[in-house]
Design a protein that fits this description.
Elements (H helix, E strand, L loop, with lengths): L4 H4 L5 H18 L9 H13 L5 H15 L1
Helix pairs in contact: 2-4
């Protein structure tokens, strides 16, 4: 999983990491991506972080935005 606590602890609080991971898992489910093996998992994780840092904190909203963006690219 992209959001291992040891990688992000100190940067984000545990509850923030949980939110990021939840958003990531949600968008993977929506798009049909495997959260552990998809070739774009790191890019997807960075997108989750960028949206989170822009002020959107709801995991479902983050996932929905990313899914819409990905669907527009298709």
């Amino acid at each position: 999983m992209p959001f291992q606590k040891t990688d992000y602890l100190g940067i984000y609080k545990p509850e923030q990491i949980k939110t990021l991971q939840t958003a990531y898992n949600e968008v993977c489910e929506i798009l049909g991506y495997c959260p552990t093996t998809d070739e774009n998992k790191d890019q997807l994780a960075r997108t989750v972080i960028r949206i989170y840092e822009s002020g959107i904190k709801d995991p479902k909203e983050i996932a929905g935005l990313i899914a819409r963006i990905e669907n527009l690219r298709s």
